[in-house]
Each structure stands twice: as structure tokens, then as C-alpha cells.
Amino acid sequence: MSKRITMSVPDHQKLTVAEFLDAVLGEEGRFELVDGVAYAMAGAKQGHNVIGSNVQTALVPAGKKSGCRTTSSDTGVQTGPNTVRYPDIVVDCGPPNPSATTASQPTIIVELSSPGTAVFDHGAKLREYQSIPSVQVVVQIESEIVPVKAHRRFGADWIEETYESLEDSIELPALATALSLREVYDTLEVRPRVRLQVIREQHPTR
Q1: What is the pLDDT of residue 55?
Q2: Using 50, 70 and 90 to split pLDDT, how confident is the model at 134?
Q3: What are phi and psi of 26, to 5 degrees?
Q4: pLDDT given at position 171
Q5: For residues 119-130, b (16+ Cβ closer than 10 Å) or e, as one string?
Q6: At CB < 8 A and 24+ separation, what contacts does 164-170 make?
Q7: Left (φ > 0), alpha (ψ -120 to 50) or beta: where does 66 sit?
Q8: Per-residue pLDDT tens for 31-77?
Q9: Per CATH, the architecture of 44-188 is what?
Q10: Which of 48, 55, 67, 200 could anchor a disulfide with 44, C-beta 3.0 to 4.6 Å?
Q11: What is the domain partition of the chain in residue ranges?
């Protein structure tokens, strides 16, 4: 869910990345720039925020050892000439720059989805992240149900992995670590994905 930003920017006016980053600096809430149009992002439920905190807590130590920084949704990722996304978690392995507002070398991206945003997050955003040469893994986490999906760069291609058990772990070679689903959903009660069961009707023999 998103809506246009109303902060003194006419609806017909498109923004450059520099203008957008300057406009949202210090603003409350989350915003994204899509093809030059600025949008305000909807708020999140508690489960979404808990998962974000859990993932960041799990990745920060390994990131430090690898010379990377694990940041929250305040770090932008430029996915196109006039598009800036704000993933829930970004692991930036570029040179440190305390004044940076976007990741210089995003390596691992984590997006948390709810039932209302899953289709969009799993489609358009995923393709944008995959177009960035430095991105190695995109992790998509459902905030209310398991499973978790990891899209992993494999040469010139991408492979999709699905994890459906709290005992599963997602390997993250860039940080020489793994992220377990038990860490992801710690303190939350989540339900497994509903599986359809095919029942064959038995016809009596004539």
C-alpha cells in the first residue's frame, strides 16, 4: 500500500533521486521514489517490526566480521535512474560512509511482506533488486505465515529457494553465516502455509 507524498511537491512534478533524498531527509514515515514519483508507504504491524528487529540482530555481528553494515529501512537502495527503494533490511558491503543515504554496495536485501503487499514485493521489487550487480541474495519473509523465500544469484541466473520449517536455515556466504527461521520468527506465533489436499472420490464398481 502506498500513496503520493504531499510535501510541497506538485503531483505533476517528477523528482530526481537527489531531489527526493533531500525532500525526505528528516521526514517521519517511509517513502519511496518510483520512476520519479514519490510515494508514502503504509505503516507496519507489530509482527513485521519484530521480524525486522530479529533479522537485524542476527545479521549485525556477522556483517561486522565481513566488513559490512546491516541497516534498517532508513537506508535506500537505488534500483533505477529515478527509483529508490527502502528494503526492510539492507546489508551494505561498500566503503563506509557515515553521511550516505543510500547503500553503495547492497549485497543482501530482506523484504518483509504482509498478505496485502506480497504480490507486489515478490514481483516488481524483486526484479529491481536482481538488476543490481552487487546483490547476491534477496530474502522475502512473510510476516504472518511461514514460508520464507530466498532468491540467490547463481552466475548469470537466479535460483529460488523455499524454506518452510523453523528448523531450516538460509545460507548467506557473503557474511559467512546462516539465518535460521527460528531466529526470524523468535517470540512470534506464526502458522504454516495452508496446503491443499486433493481428495479423490471413490466411485463404486458397477
Answers
A1: 96
A2: very high
A3: 85, -5
A4: 97
A5: eebbeebbebbb
A6: 164/192, 164/193, 170/137, 170/139
A7: alpha
A8: 899 999 998 887 667 888 899 999 999 999 999 999 999 998 789 99
A9: Alpha-Beta Complex (3.90)
A10: 48
A11: 1-43, 44-188
Q: In what order do the strands lie in the sheet with 77-80?
A: 2-4, 37-41, 30-34, 83-85, 77-80
Say how far apart CA 123 and CA 153 lie, in whole Å.
16
Q: Which residues of 71-83 are buried (b: 16+ CB within 10 A; e: fewer)?
A: bebebbbbbeebb
84 vs 175: CA distance, rounded Å: 25
Spatial separation of the C-alpha atoms in residues 39 and 27, rounded to whole Å = 13
The DSSP code sequence of 23-49 is: HHTT-SSEEEEETTEEEEEPP--HHHH
What is the rounded CA–CA span in Å between residue 148 and residue 190? 12
